[in-house]
Inverse folding.
């Protein structure tokens, strides 16, 4: 888990993107005396990519910046995110605007191939 989060952070940095937050859901749960499988969300993006999307579709701000969920499933680490095509459909984005969100696919592909 920790290695996967660190690899994603390195990939995001290598692309010149901004990491806005790493949310440690399992750590917060433990702090409240609760148990949750290792679960973290990395929130990242680029104002140059996301701003035009939000200008055209203000509600897209509910899903931007982009997020990747990294979670433990038994002995496996899994990586999940909302596909850019789903976001484009949700907000009626043009092909030009939807390509601005497509970089997440390349990042996650590189992450799982590492």
């Amino acid at each position: 888990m920790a290695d996967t989060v660190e690899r994603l952070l390195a990939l995001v940095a290598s692309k010149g993107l901004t990491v806005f937050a790493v949310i440690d859901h399992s750590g917060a749960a433990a702090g409240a005396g609760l148990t949750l499988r290792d679960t973290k969300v990395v929130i990242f993006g680029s104002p140059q990519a996301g701003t035009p999307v939000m200008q055209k579709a203000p509600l897209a701000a509910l899903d931007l910046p982009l997020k990747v969920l990294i979670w433990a499933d038994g002995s496996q680490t899994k990586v999940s995110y909302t596909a850019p095509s789903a976001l484009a459909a949700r907000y009626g984005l043009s092909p030009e605007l939807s390509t601005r969100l497509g970089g997440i696919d390349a990042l996650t592909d590189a992450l799982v191939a590492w």
User: Anything to note?
Assistant: The CA atoms of residues 41 and 69 lie 4 Å apart.
